[in-house]
Each structure stands twice: as structure tokens, then as C-alpha cells.
């Protein structure tokens, strides 16, 4: 049973977005339709320059749509003042600037600003929400630490806690994993998914991290130049092949078995005997080394690993490749 009633938190209908300068206007996105659901984490993916930030600016009320409709909780976004929009939509941008001597606790308390005004005086409810945001992001232990003295991953969690303390219905994050290592990227995205599911928030994450988005997102929005926004469960878009829209050219394709993008059009074939998962890595290594064919069979033995080719035994791929290249 769902804890929260799933509903459309944010909706765009036939949106045309772009920029005006004097009398000229430049349309970046047109015919844009989407629905962001509460209780779900949606990942917005698309190539550089396609208009992801432009869409976020429109959602935040920073640019007005040329045409079409944008609604929050069923109400036209134009009817919200910037202050009331700030209570409903929290945003975490890629490179936020906050003083390094600010503590994590002070940063998270800033999330309450749309509610407290600039006096920043917190009442009991505000303090409760700040503490809850710290504990939901598992950084209560960091609350007295300065921003300049914590790691990038911890700082990103603090930024998420600040957005959470704002307690709006919608959370938007622009590349929240950009500077993080693999473990932290997983941790942040899993945390966001948990927040969406357990707190009933509609979370939109702009990311270029397809691998981690596949593992964690409930829904993808794929944005590509000149085509309508595609929305669906990641697995549906993979099975239908629509995920290939993200790829810049026919040289790449999404490998359904490996679950990631790979170079396509490589005609090299090798005769390799051994466990399938090991064969994959041997082929990969040979191709990267510029080897497109070998004369005989390569045999792979597992545990301990050794490779046999032309009566020779090799303990590493490096050894085999050196032999093949001489
Ligand atoms: N203030 C602006 N005035 C005019 N054009 C702009 C403005 N900001 C962005 N653009 C243009 O809008 C287009 C989309 O930019 P946007 O930043 O939305 O792309 P993006 O998908 O977020 O890219 P990235 O993945 O690189 O962050 C680009 O061609 C960009 O030059």
C-alpha cells in the first residue's frame, strides 16, 4: 500500500520555452508535455544544450513560457507569486555558493527562509523540520561542521537537507552527483529516491549519469533536439529502444544485456572459449588494444585466471595483448 496518494505534482502542456532579448526571441523547446508524479524520482536526461536548464528556469518561474501551460498541484504556475512558488518548489543547483564558514545546521535552516522571511527566526515547527531534514539525509552528526571542512558528498547531502527543510511538494536538482565518486553518486541518488517514496515528494533530477539513473529512477524524461519529450519507466524506454535517443550517433548503442552504452559497428570477431562474462571483458580489452582478429582460439580459465592462445599461457590480458601485438 502506498503511504501517499500518488498525484501529478507538476504538469507541462504544449510548452514553448526560450529567451527574449529586446524584440527578438529564441525558442529552445517547443510542444513540451510532461507530468511529474509525487512519490517518484524522475530523471531528466538529454545532451548538453538541449534545454534542460531552460525547462528548470521555467518551472522556477525565472522565465515565462512563450506559450502553453505549466501547473503545480493543478494550479497554473502563473498564479503563484515567486514567494509562494519558493514554498512549494525547492531547488538544488550544481554549484551553489554559500560561505565556507557557515555550518551545516545553519545551511539547512536556510531552507526555512521562504517560511520565516529573511529574519530567519525559527519557530518550533521550523526547528522540527530542520532536524528531520538532517536526520532524513543522515547528516545530524555533521550539523556543527563548517561547509568548508566537509567532503563534496557530505556538502551535497547538506544541500539536499536544505531543500528538504523547505518542505515543498517538488524538489528539483540539477546534476546533484556531478562532482562525486561512484559510491557517493549511488548514495545520493538512492537517498533522493527514498525521500520521494517515503515523503511523497515529486523529485526531478537533471543528470548525465545514465547508469545510476537506470538503477534508481522511477521515471525518465528524455529530451532531445527537435523531438517530443519522452516519458516512461526506464525499463520501458530500454525495452522499446527509445533510450537510444540519448546517443549522439549510430556509433553507439545501448547494450540490453550490459545495461549501458557501448560503441557499435565493430565488426571484430574472436573465437574465445570460456565463461560468457569473462569472454565479454577479453573482447573489450582486445578491441581497445586495436586488435580486430586473431588466428586461433583463445581459452579462458577462471580461478585462477589464465588465458591460453597458440599453446602459450598468460596470467593477464596485458600479457596476451603484448604477445598478439609482437
Ligand atoms: N540566458 C540565455 N539567453 C539566451 N540563450 C540561452 C540562455 N541560457 C541558455 N541559452 C541557450 O539555450 C540553449 C539550451 O541551454 P540549457 O542551458 O537549457 O541546456 P542544458 O540542456 O541545460 O545543457 P547542459 O546539459 O550543458 O547543462 C542553449 O543553446 C543555450 O545557448
CATH fold topology of the largest domain: Rossmann fold
Q: Order of strands across the widest beta sheet?
A: 6-7-8-3-9-10
Structural Rg: 24 Å
Reading off the top of the CATH hierarchy, the class of the largest domain is best stated as Alpha Beta
Which tags fit this structure?
six-stranded mixed β-sheet, Rossmann fold, 2 domains, alpha/beta, globular, four-stranded antiparallel β-sheet, 326 residues, binds adenosine-5'-triphosphate
Topology of helices and strands:
Blueprint: E1 8-21, E2 24-37, E3 40-45, H1 52-59, E4 67-72, E5 75-76, H2 82-88, E6 89-92, H3 104-110, H4 113-116, H5 124-136, H6 152-165, E7 170-174, H7 182-199, E8 202-206, H8 210-216, E9 219-222, E10 230-232, H9 234-239, E11 252-255, E12 260-263, E13 272-273, H10 276-288, E14 298-301, E15 306-309, E16 312-314, H11 317-325
Parallel strand pairs: 3-8, 3-9, 6-7, 7-8, 13-14
Antiparallel strand pairs: 1-2, 1-4, 4-5, 9-10, 11-12, 14-15, 15-16
Amino acid at each position: 500500500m502506498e503511504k501517499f496518494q500518488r498525484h501529478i505534482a507538476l504538469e507541462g502542456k504544449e510548452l514553448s520555452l526560450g529567451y527574449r532579448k529586446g524584440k527578438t526571441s529564441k525558442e529552445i523547446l517547443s510542444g513540451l508535455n510532461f507530468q511529474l508524479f509525487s512519490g517518484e524520482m524522475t530523471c531528466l536526461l538529454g545532451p548538453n544544450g538541449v534545454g534542460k536548464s531552460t525547462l528548470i528556469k521555467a518551472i522556477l518561474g525565472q522565465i515565462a513560457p512563450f506559450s502553453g501551460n505549466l501547473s503545480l498541484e493543478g494550479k497554473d504556475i502563473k498564479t503563484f507569486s515567486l514567494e509562494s512558488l519558493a514554498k512549494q518548489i525547492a531547488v538544488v543547483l550544481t554549484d551553489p555558493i554559500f560561505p565556507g564558514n557557515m555550518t551545516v545546521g545553519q545551511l539547512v535552516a536556510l531552507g526555512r527562509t521562504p517560511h520565516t522571511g529573511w529574519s530567519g527566526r525559527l519557530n518550533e515547527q521550523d526547528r522540527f523540520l530542520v532536524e528531520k531534514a538532517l536526520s532524513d539525509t543522515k547528516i545530524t552528526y555533521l550539523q556543527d561542521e563548517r561547509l568548508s571542512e566537509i567532503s563534496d558528498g557530505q556538502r551535497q547531502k547538506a544541500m539536499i537537507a536544505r531543500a528538504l527543510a523547505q518542505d515543498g511538494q517538488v524538489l528539483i536538482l540539477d546534476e546533484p552527483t556531478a562532482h562525486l565518486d561512484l559510491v557517493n553518486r549511488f548514495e545520493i541518488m538512492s537517498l533522493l529516491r527514498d525521500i520521494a517514496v517515503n515523503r511523497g515528494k515529486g523529485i526531478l533530477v537533471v543528470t548525465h549519469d545514465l547508469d545510476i539513473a537506470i538503477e534508481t529512477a522511477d521515471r525518465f524524461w528524455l529530451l532531445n533536439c527537435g523531438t517530443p519529450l519522452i516519458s516512461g519507466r526506464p525499463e520501458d524506454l530500454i525495452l522499446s529502444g527509445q533510450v537510444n535517443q540519448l546517443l549522439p550517433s549510430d556509433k553507439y548503442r545501448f547494450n540490453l544485456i550490459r545495461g549501458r552504452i557501448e560503441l557499435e559497428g565493430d565488426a571484430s570477431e574472436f573465437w574465445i572459449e570460456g565463461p560468457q562474462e569473462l569472454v565479454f571483458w577479453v573482447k573489450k580489452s582486445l578491441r581497445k588494444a586495436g586488435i580486430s582478429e586473431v588466428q586461433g582460439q583463445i581459452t579462458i580459465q577462471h580461478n585462477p585466471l589464465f588465458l591460453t592462445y597458440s599453446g602459450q599461457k598468460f596470467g593477464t590480458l596485458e600479457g596476451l595483448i603484448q604477445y598478439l601485438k609482437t
